[in-house]
Amino acid sequence: MRVLITGGAGFIGSHVVDRLVADGHDVRALDLLLPLAHSTVPDYLHPGAEFVHGDLADAATISSALAGVDAVCHHAAMVGLGLDFGDVPAYIRHNDLATGVLLRELAARRFRGRLVLASSMVVYGEGRYLCPMHGEVTPAPRCADELEAGRFEAPCPGCAGPLQPLAIDERGRLDPRNVYAATKLHQEHLCAAFARETGAGLVTLRYHNVYGPRMPRDTPYAGVASIFASSLAAGRAPEVFEDGAQLRDFVHVRDVACANALALEADAAPGAVYNVASGEPRSVLRMAQALADAHGSAAPAPVITGRFRLGDVRHVFAAADRARDELGFSAREPFAEGMAEFAFAGLRGTT
Asked: pTM to 2 decimals?
């Protein structure tokens, strides 16, 4: 199968390239090489893949890149929370406009193959919550006054009582709470409309907190695991926001690449959506401590700062059953060993 991977020189995309080349596919990697990630073709890009340097939002570039392609894994995106609201046009251009151009060119070719969309758990916003009195509830976005007072847990909107966080499955409500999240949900909507109108086989993968080698470092768009790893590499303590009890699902990038390989060939229902996750929630503080442990007893311990970002949610972690049952996907990389590897990995490139 000839597969185009957009964002193929990036953090996740390059691991998908590795996996698909190893599986015997004919792989073409398209990447803009945004300076925030990398200005040249990274040395880790698999030599068995064809590389195309170009802008996904440019019709001529994508038209050429699609020649002879049987399937597409769409990873190209601008990620993270960015610097401030001034980043909005860039997120829309790289995430939404570029996706629209890709879909238009696929439609022009009467593409009916498999389209795998790299989405994100950020489309859920807050996760699922259970109130002992009111059942499942949707808490309102947390306000600055509450966060500044150190009240980080979202209360029940009915009785203001404490809530129990639950794993969220693919039927969970979609409530993006920052610009990046809004553009990822728009990507899902655009791809779903394309699949309905053309008959193409869409599979959407909602990645949870992906970590591993090649993760970007030292940019405003880096993920929290990368920020902690960079601090430890420089001999500084990881600075943990809020109280560190935020629950997330950390999944290794090699597991994510495996999910892509399965999604390309699975007999999935039209428009199927899957969480790609370990299925085991862990706190942000535990993740920071795992990275510190990899550096040994002399490493500085994580510091809880109480700082916060209004765009962050409190708890969101995955129910991973559907991907297991329908794709045959289960995360296999052990958490402690994966974090130890990541602590010393060269952190380069992103999608």
From this structure: 0.94
Whole-angstrom Cα Rg for the chain: 20
pLDDT digits (tens, 9 = 90+) for 148-176: 999 999 999 999 999 999 999 999 999 99
Give the residue carrying structure tokens 């090699």: 254
Name the H helices within 149-252.
179-198, 224-233
Contacts of 98 (CB under 8 A, 6+ apart): 55, 56, 57, 76
105-108's contacts with Cβ under 8 Å and 24+ in sequence apart are 105/59, 105/62, 105/63, 105/66, 106/66, 106/72, 106/194, 106/198, 106/200, 107/194, 107/197, 107/198, 108/63
Using CA atoms, how far apart are residues 226 and 217, in angstroms rounded to an integer? 6
Q: What residue type is assigned to position 256 of the chain? A: V
Where are the strands (E) in 62-193, listed by range? 71-74, 114-120, 128-131, 135-137, 164-166
297: exposed, middle or buried (C-beta count within 10 Å: 0-12, 13-18, 19+)? exposed
Which residue, among 112, 105, 142, has the nearest Cα to 312 in the 3D structure? 142
The closest alpha carbon to 256, from 233, 275, 242, belongs to 275
64/81 Cα distance (integer angstroms): 32
pLDDT at position 221, please? Answer: 55
